[in-house]
Specification:
single chain; alpha+beta; five-stranded mixed β-sheet; 9% strand
């Protein structure tokens, strides 16, 4: 009776009843996975079969699979025969995973490591930058060159003004993309990162330019992991063979590389001629080129390859924003409360580039945090290969074991979270967080669960920029527009299904309707 959907049902809303029935039916098969007894898990093929799925459908079942295994086996699940790792250990307790992070050493595993298509491309090109996808001194060198002007909090905030200019331009034409919101959000995210990178805002015409093709190619490459994890692809790679699918991906990466080379060459020529604007001189690209110039720096040709990877990843962050938009469209009261906060604080203006943002716009932060809790972009946002032996209770984890943190399990546990499948941003406001401090429910406030972009030495390089990007676009859109879904029978974002495409996106994108708040 506490569930809003069921309250509608009792009031005679049969559309909500049909929607609830579909949602319950979609969840019905999940708890039936057979237990593997003391092994705390089983083969991924067996567990998928129990859900009526085959391995090639894994990309559409990852969040449900992880959570179903957690409900059955608890905080630790041992997956067997998970290509290409073999054994994969799923942890659901962030405190336990924190202990593993302390064992990382100087050259930890993590983001982009072993990315099959990108690794093969850099290997076949004979590039030194292959080291960026591994561990060791070369990774450390490249990481140091890239992160200082992007990951540091003060550096990330310094780009906020140009990010908001880009968000304002993108907001102008969102109403024309109601039936193509996935395309719009990818382009809006890419345009903001392009502005940070080059110090220049793309105009409306960018949607039909080479940037649009670059975004499509980026999503294709980043979504290839599931495809290249298929047994026949793994076997081919082990034998040193190149499949038709991999050849196509390598050609796509080369096309993207040439696109980025042209952009950077043009920027560098204008830089040498002292023709850059003030914004361009303050861009991420200019800062890195200035710092790496001269002896001991990373050569420009290597930087180009690394910059392509960063720009490619920028097209993969729209998932976080997309889920937040869907939740707010489904919950008009939350959307209106956010609009009131933004109007009161910003009065139609932009976000302030200071560290007090969380205190001045708590409901904006809470909406993004609640969206991440319900529909995380990367349900296995933290993955590590142990560099030393470890243990979890009575389970020994030998060196080389692959482990990941299921960041949804605790946050959707009904013993810790009231109405866990309902979108309630208020649960992240300061008073609510303070009220659960010292209780078992406080575990949902653990830092490892707060974002989808990792922690530790291999935290996503653009994670702080992505956070500000999400807040900038969402704040601008909610100030400019009210929006809802075209289909009134959709009651929950979960009904849309989920598919892994580099990040977890809706399997079916709904159509949005927009109405201008300001005439």
């Amino acid at each position: 009776l506490r569930c809003p959907t069921m309250l509608k049902v009792f009031k005679g809303d049969f559309g909500a009843l049909r929607s609830a029935a579909r949602h319950v039916a979609s969840l019905g098969a999940l708890p039936t996975i057979p237990s593997a007894g003391k092994d705390r898990g089983g083969s991924v093929q067996t567990m998928l079969a129990a859900m009526g799925l085959k391995f090639h459908q894994l990309d559409r079942a990852l969040p449900e699979l992880y959570n179903a295994a957690h409900r059955l086996h608890g905080d630790i699940v041992v997956w067997e025969e998970w290509p290409p790792h073999g054994r994969l250990v799923q942890l659901s307790c962030p405190r336990a995973f924190t202990a593993l992070l302390k064992l990382e050493g100087n050259f930890p595993s993590g983001g982009f490591e072993g990315e099959p298509a990108l690794c093969r491309y850099h290997e076949e090109q004979g590039l030194q930058t292959l080291g960026f996808f591994a561990r060791g001194p070369q990774w450390r060198r490249y990481r140091g060159a890239l992160e200082r002007e992007l990951l540091a909090p003060q550096a990330a905030r310094s780009y906020l003004a140009i990010m908001q200019r880009s968000a304002a331009i993108s907001s102008r034409f969102v109403s024309g993309f109601g039936d193509r919101m996935d395309e719009y959000l990818v382009m809006a995210s890419h345009n903001i990162f392009h502005a940070v990178f080059f110090g220049r805002v793309l105009g409306d015409s960018s949607l039909s330019s080479a940037a649009s093709e670059f975004c499509r190619d980026s999503r294709r490459v980043l979504a290839a992991n599931a495809e290249l994890g298929q047994p026949h692809q793994v076997a081919a790679a082990a034998a040193g063979e190149t499949t038709a699918e991999l050849l196509e991906l390598l050609a796509t990466i080369e096309r993207m590389q040439q696109h980025v080379n042209g952009l950077i060459d043009a920027f560098s020529a204008r830089r040498e001629a002292r023709q850059l604007s003030e914004c361009e001189r303050s861009s991420y690209l200019a800062r890195v080129l200035d710092r790496e110039r001269g002896a001991g720096g990373v050569p420009n040709e290597e930087l180009k390859k690394l910059f392509t990877v960063l720009l490619m990843a920028s097209s993969d962050v729209s998932s976080l924003l997309g889920w937040a938009m869907i939740h707010l469209a489904l919950h008009p009261r939350s959307q209106e409360r956010l609009a009131v906060e933004l109007e009161h604080t910003l009065q139609g203006g932009e976000l302030a580039s200071d560290p007090r943002l969380a205190r001045t716009l708590p409901y904006l932060q809470a909406c993004v945090r609640e969206s991440h809790r319900l529909t995380p972009s990367l349900p296995a946002g933290l993955a590590k290969q142990l560099s030393d032996d470890a243990s979890y209770g009575d389970l020994m984890l030998p060196r080389g074991t692959f482990c990941f943190l299921n960041i949804a399990a605790k946050q959707q546990d009904c013993t810790l979270v009231h109405d866990p499948m309902i979108f309630v941003p208020e649960r992240w406001l300061p008073d609510a967080v303070a009220a659960r401090k010292g209780t078992p429910a406080a575990i949902i406030d653990h830092p490892l669960l707060a974002t989808p972009f990792g922690h530790g030495a291999r935290q996503c390089l653009g994670s702080r920029v992505v956070r500000l990007e999400t807040l900038s676009i969402l704040a601008r859109l909610v100030q400019d527009w009210s929006f809802e879904l075209d289909d009134p029978t959709i009651c929950s974002a979960i009904e849309l299904g989920r598919v892994f495409q580099g990040a977890v996106n809706p399997a079916t994108w709904p159509t949005f309707r927009f109405k201008a708040r300001r005439v």
